[in-house]
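note to self — DONT lose this again. spent like an hour looking for the file last time. sequence + predicted structure for the chain T wanted, 484 res
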Amino acid sequence: MVGITSYGAYVPRRRLNRMAVLTSMGWFAPGLMMAAAGERSFCSWDEDTMTLAVAASRDCLAGMDKNGVDAAYLASTSLPFKDRQNAGIMATACNLPEGGLATGDITASSKSGTTALLAGLDAVKGGDRKSVLVTASDARPTKAAWFFNLWYGDGAASLLLGKDKVIAEFLGAHSVSCDFVPSYRGTDAKFDYGWEERWIRDEGYTKILPEAIKGLLEKTGTSMDEVAKVIYPCHLSKRIHREIGKLVGAGPDKVVDNMAEVMGDIGAAQPLAMLITALEQAKPGDKLVVASFGQGSDALLFQVTDAIKDLPARRGMQGSLAHRKEEDNYSKMLKWRDLMVVDMGIRAEAKLQTALSALWRDRKLVLGFVGGKCTACGTPQFPKMRMCVNPSCHKVDTQEDFEFANQSGIVKSFTGDMLAVSVEPPAIYGLVQFNCGGRTMVDFTDCELGEVKVGMPVGMSFRVKYHDPDRDFHGYFWKAVPQT
């Protein structure tokens, strides 16, 4: 049996009230009123497509044997690097084994999430790979005061594929490939360019999606009556989303909500995120149809198994959507997405060149947050050093790798620094004591100064540490997130 063995998701905590966009820019673009209902997710200043992907992947791997993962695919249309394998960064941050691991980026279309999913399923089915991690993530750049700025959202979804303990068996797929272009972004362009919405609806969504879904049902000998849920993206409107269901014979009770009013369309991750929402509520025996959209469509059929009852608890889509903070300051999003130029002060002029040789040597420490643990006395410490920090031990060269990324801790001390360079002042940082032992100084994120207390629990999150604009290099590290 080949199929899905686990799932995970991540949606940024920040949710922009779409009315805030209208309030701020309605004088210029009054037509935004048509898309101003609900809210959209958006990355904090220290989040991007990569950090979203790592968070979703970690959620997917919770309670699973990640040492058995032998392939990792990352799908996105907004990857931070053009010539550096992004899936390799994700794999290192998740501390996947380097030996025997195949990694790959799949991009250039909003249906790349299902393309990666099909590639992973084929690899497992063919016997080349035993456990494949497929993650789709997007944080697409858009111009301010544009419909897509409201329609889009940021987020990531992750699926683990294999043959053991399958929670949703793969029953078949059907693909449609055509050069239909609802929007595009050139090699050197910063933003998408979109065509007229009515044309996207009439020639795109309402023709291509039904063709793919009907082709799947015919190919697998399945009737719509046998299907529990139908999953497909459509960001134009709720009405059009429901109409597509009618075109394939699915009533409103079978069509999975596209989460447009609570998140927005998250690009390559959208079909996988919607599939996860269906899996979170599915029962054994349910058949699920999931289809993507973008230069055609991939439609896949899964059947939920009894093993879904034994899947360890995880955040998933429900937990991600519930963890939210409403934001009605549109200018904050504009600055964080580099849509507004502000003076950052003379302190921000420091050079940020990354020594790639040092990054290579310390990749486990920087990207994987790996410290050390003394094999003589069992004391963990971060960073890993030759000598054990335990004053009763001080043995030399006795340390083995110890992963701190999944360890919880408490705040021992903290400060709010108004002089440090920050796009969300004050910069908050302090000392974290890990419950397993070991302590380190780190930045805090996803919090305000008044929320941080000595003794409060924290977890670790992979985040953007800096961006070097001169060389367009994104640097990453781990930060503490208060667990409220």
